[in-house]
Write a structure and sequence with these properties.
- 2 copies of one chain form a homodimer.
- Chain A is of the alpha+beta class.
- Helix content of chain A is 42%, strand content 12%.
- Chain A has 2 domains: 3-42, no CATH class; 58-186, NADH Oxidase (3-Layer(aba) Sandwich).
- Chain A has helices at 3-12, 32-44, 58-69, 88-102, 107-113, 131-151, 165-171, 201-204; strands spanning 80-85, 118-125, 178-186, 205-207.
- In chain A, helix 2 (32-44) packs across helix 6.
- Chains A and B meet through helix 2, helix 3, strand 1, helix 6 and strand 4 of A and helix 2, helix 3, strand 1, helix 6 and strand 4 of B.
- Strand 1 of chain A pairs parallel with strand 4 (205-207) of chain B, so a sheet runs across the interface.
């Protein structure tokens, strides 16, 4: 947004060319470019299952986890844990155990799946007043994590079943009181997948009642 | 980011003053202001339970739902529905039924809770190959919805239990094959709540294994 337009916005709450941003609400930013970039993040997040080995800097990992940590949660319990795995030996143990179970034909799949330089296992405490809702909050945190990763240029995937929970429970010594929400790689994609075909948004919307 | 710096970035992938943004990855934006604004969105989303009556323009509602619609989901099923309620009579029916059940002392609570101009009920189809994962995907969609709302200046809350599922099932004629993920208001907050106290992020992180 050019300075003149920004001034115009601050004065009138309206910038004609910005289209969707035309109200003087307390939006996060009055900058239409920032707004656009944020919505591009939602649209360009992809589920990625093969990565380049390029390391992810620690400051990016912390920034991504901080975004996760700000997800909403019941009664502010923050009943989640983020297990950050960068140790290649541990990642190879997970990969090898998956291949052992999946058989020779699963080798390429799990080799690709476990090729990221860092994984985050999101856990939710089951010994709370409402473990179901705390697990859901863990999923909301994982969505923040994946969006933050995408914004910084990384791919991820919300993996629930492909890598069995008991495999990570055993290899990571996860205490019995935690349920795994997901295991999510973070890394530069081998390539960014195409956008999968989306249903028309209208098909997903019902107005007022069925 | 000033033009000179942006040019410097495009050339070298490094802008000293941006701090966290120092790699030439395919990030969503090379603009450090946009990056900062996105992370501000994560941090300033709040759970809001009282709203001004100011209407939310339809184009904002659609933009928010489009963000939700781009959430990850198992095998691209998009097994969610978004029931958008703007009809005040329907919202008042929900409020009155909640007050009827909660008693006179719940009146202010539900009057505030149902004061937003628009609500989105997120539903997940239970007649799929994996309804548990499809319900989780509905939660991820709801997180996108809440972040997009915040970016545009609106408050929301991930409401699961406060408004009973059978109340909305009945009033909205929701078919039996849908499970409610949440009901989420969207509106200008009566006031933005303070940031709740957060645990130190370090407490939530475990490195490599327990």
């Amino acid at each position: 947004m050019k300075t003149t337009k920004r001034r115009q916005f601050l004065k009138t709450g309206f910038v004609g060319s910005a289209g969707f941003f035309c109200s003087p609400f307390a939006a996060v930013t009055e900058d239409s470019q920032s707004q656009t970039d944020l919505f591009i993040t939602f649209k360009t997040r992809r589920s990625v299952r093969k990565f380049k080995p390029t390391p992810v800097p620690d400051e990016h990992i912390l920034q991504i986890l901080e975004a996760a940590h700000y997800a909403p949660c019941p009664r502010n319990r923050q009943a989640w844990k983020f297990v950050v795995i960068k140790n290649r030996d541990i990642l190879d143990q997970i990969r090898d155990e998956c291949i052992k179970r999946g058989g020779e034909q699963s080798k390429q799949y799990f080799t690709d799946y476990m090729s990221a330089p860092v994984y985050v296992v999101v856990l939710a405490d089951t010994q709370t007043r409402n473990p179901v809702n705390d697990a859901t909050a863990g999923a909301l945190a994982a969505e923040n994590l994946m969006l933050a990763a995408r914004a910084l240029g990384y791919g991820s995937v919300f993996c629930v079943n492909s890598i069995p929970e008991d495999v990570t429970n055993k290899i990571l010594n996860i205490p019995d009181n935690y349920k795994r929400v997901c295991i999510t790689p973070i890394g530069i994609p081998d390539k960014w997948p195409e956008t999968p075909p989306k249903k028309d948004l209208k098909e997903a919307i019902v107005y007022d009642r069925f």
